[in-house]
Specification:
The structure holds 2 protein chains of 2 kinds.
Chain A (H helix, E strand, L loop, with lengths): L8 H32 L2 E4 L4 E4 L3 H8 L1 H33 L5 H8 L1 H4 L2 H12 L22 H27 L3 H9 L4 H29 L3 H6 L11 H11 L3 H33 L1
Antiparallel strand pairs in A: 1-2
Chain B lengths: L11 H13 L7 E5 L3 H7 L11 H7 L2 H7 E2 L2 E2 L2 E7 L1 E5 L10 H14 L4 E4 L6 H13 L5 E2 L2 E2 L4 H15 L12 H9 L3 E6 L2 H6 L10 E4 L13 E8 L5 H14 L2 H11 L12 H6 L7 H5 L10 H16 L5 H16 L4
Parallel strand pairs in B: 6-9
Antiparallel strand pairs in B: 1-11, 2-3, 4-11, 5-9, 5-10, 7-8
Helix pairs in contact in B: 6-7, 6-14, 14-15
The chains are: A mainly alpha, B alpha+beta.
Chain lengths: 293, 361
Amino acid sequence: MPEQWRDGPTEKRQAYFLVAPAMAMLLLVTAYPVCEAAWLSLHRFILVFHDWRFLGIQNYRFLLSDERFWTALANTGYFTLVAVSLELVMGLGFALVLNASFRGRAAVRASVLIPWAIPTVISAKAWAWFFDAGGPGSRLLLNPDASWLGTPGYAMHAAILVDVWKTTPFVAVLLLAGLQAIPRDVYEAAEVDGASWWRVFRSVTLPMLGPMIAVALLFRTLDAFRVFDAIYVLTEGGPANTTETVSIYAYKTLMRAGDFGYGSSLAIAIFLAALGISLGYVKVLGRVLGAAR
Amino acid sequence: MEIGAEALPNASDVAHQYFLTALEGGAVDFDVLVLDVIWTREFARAGWIADLSFAVGPELLRQEFFAAAAESAIVDGKVFAVPWYVDVGLLYYRRDLVPDPPRSYRELEQDALVAKSADARLQGYLWQGKQYEGLVCNVFEAIWGHGGSAWSDGRLHLQTSEAVAALAYLRSLLTGGISPASVNSAAEEESRRAFQNGRAVFMRNWPYAFSEFQHPDSPVRDRVGFAALPTRDGAYGQGTLGGWNLALNARSPPRNQLAAVQLIEHLTSAPANLLLAGAYGRNSPRPALYRDPTLAEAAPQMPALLPILSAARPRPPTAYYNLVSDVLQSEFSAAIAGVRTPETALGRAQQHIDRIVGQHA
């Protein structure tokens, strides 16, 4: 290794110097708003009336007993768990199919991405027509006069379906990239050993895909946890708040009702939950990556 | 003088959000603004719109405009806006199926059942049951229709026998098959489209729907009538007042203010009202115009709205309306969808609203 590439004190200082602008930018756009929201969350602050009073942790105490928050959190958790599981399983299936060589593969690969490419608001509006009373979706229900979006229980699953439809391609493409990074000779060796398809999948493909699966899960879990646009277009959180997620509750409190104090407490709660999820995944990811090396 | 126009988002709550950010940020790029009747009090209290009493006194407003519209613009005895056009909840009925509009809930139910027995595919009564602002209007109309009043002494009172009866009645429409299950997810346009396709006997909606029904290619053209909403005991029904007011940005620079006030006066004048009615189907907020032959010529259905608009009632006149409505939307939806009993839903709503408003009333 040439001498000038080694880390010396000068290089280290230079490195800090070089990343400093990026760090400053990052602090400005992430740390500052988070701190500002944390500060707001300690106040009663109804924006329009300049009604500003320090409350300490009262907002958080109310949050702990706020049934609507816990319902929203449970809705969000259910949505995330079901949607991300389905996306992972189906995305993996698609990735395996797209990785095989067949005629017209390029066209199929491109077309799979279409749901991902359509802006969520537009596709959600189209799905709303599908689920509406008299639409094709309502014929799948017991009562053809009913609408998925107006029936508690069904509305949430309609939202999950839309999310799965939209983001399975994203998971598939990520996993496809992972599949293509697996060296061919590993498969050839397995073939020589006479391993069955299932055995190859379980002992070669899955472990070597592990890091990519973890990355896909991290992205999707965080995205699903913050879900807003699709559900907002479909139901605005109704009926009876059965599709209200934490983001929608925070949005309504902040932007529609103008209650910036309690709205900020909700936002901080979401931030802490998302932080917890990321830290958990980073830990798992570190272990998976360590095992793969 | 030059006037620039800026388009607002067509969803009312998104328009509200636009004003919230613009006016809180001290925007001066517009002098005159159009606001929903339910925001006027909030904007006045926030100090975002100017007192116009020097140009339009409260007595004049009460004399010339529908009572509910005038009250929406008067805050603490001062005029903060001028009504531009108004809306009211109506009962639409199919004249070919029902000779006379029902006056009471019982009559509506019977008429719906009779029409349904002749044609099983017909639906009875469509209204707006989705969790959104329209649901709040529908529920208040039912509360008033049961003889209740949710607002007194500057406070919202939800835990009344009339409110319980109103929610139970709306729920029973769904469970009893008078209203289809789709009402649970219907806003104005969903109900209007179904009714226009000839699928239902009755519908609650705003006046705009009528001109849609009269389109040349509408399946129900010339077969739809409208009337005041029915009530429990057959008294004349009171629909929710909707509509838009014009106001002056409180930060509008002094050199623009005079012209801005003149613009408001011009846009809300009787001739402008007539023009809006004829060309865009907007209902004038001035009762006197409904007897004007030019109005009947420009919009033949409009004179019949006079008694219905005169009886229109405002939603609770609180500066915290958006906060209150957010709570009402979730709890009313829970009662309509059968997730909670009316008593529980109303109790929860009252508790939340008291927390928000109580400390400030």
